[in-house]
Amino acid sequence: MTLLQVQDLRKVYKSKLGGKDVEALRRVNFQVEKGEFVAIMGDSGSGKTTLLNIIASLDRPSAGKVIISGQDLTALSDQDLTRFRRERLGFVFQDFKLLDSFNLADNILLPLVLAKAPLKEMQARLQFLASNLGLQDLLNKYPFELSGGEKQRGAIARALITKPDLVLADEPTGQLDSFNAQEILDSFAAIGAQGQTILMVTHSAKAAAEAGRVLFIRDGVVFAELVRAGKSHLEQMEAISQLMAQSSRRAPVPSHAQAR
Known about the structure:
- The chain has eight helices and ten strands.
- It is an alpha/beta fold.
- The strands form two sheets. A six-stranded mixed sheet has the order 6-7-8-3-9-10, sandwiched between helices.
- Strand 7, helix 6 and strand 8 form a beta-alpha-beta unit.
- The longest helix has 16 residues.
- The C terminus is likely disordered.
């Protein structure tokens, strides 16, 4: 079952000072099936963050469509987009975005508080996620008392608390040391194995190798994909590194290029 469809997506940033317009995305096409864990890789300036922001409904495309669970986001009003984002999407950011004045439990529960969910339901979901992510002994602590990995696991719990259709992760290991980064990657792998659909932007081959499929973007075009299939994590990581190295030596992708 297809959960996410990106169709002929284009994004142009208009110059305000009479300069040349910047085409950040050019005819991007791909889809993500329900339960898939997909990574998007690309160099700085490749368009991957712009793509994630449009899928997250934080930015609007210049052309094309983003369809999630049958809903065309480009057809929604700003008010409806805000509601969709709150109810149907989960977010994990590089810098955690936890509120310093809230303890971890309150940070995780915040989306359900905003949705005015029943207290009993909130507590049940919190305890389930805390148990699965190893947060039981941390719920009363404040962000300044937590390690980077603990903060990010808390952010993952917050993203999952609403049972979203899609979790969007933006460089989730970008600020972590190798030990904490591996903990987060293990958490994502476990979440994906349970059937949660995940779309992750990353520059890390190690992180991307956890995904079942990797999309590669360059000059605003998704130009290749790599399916993990039966490859080991190390084999997939090596394949990703080789493809990224090859693409950095190639000429820019032509404007008529299609995702493949």
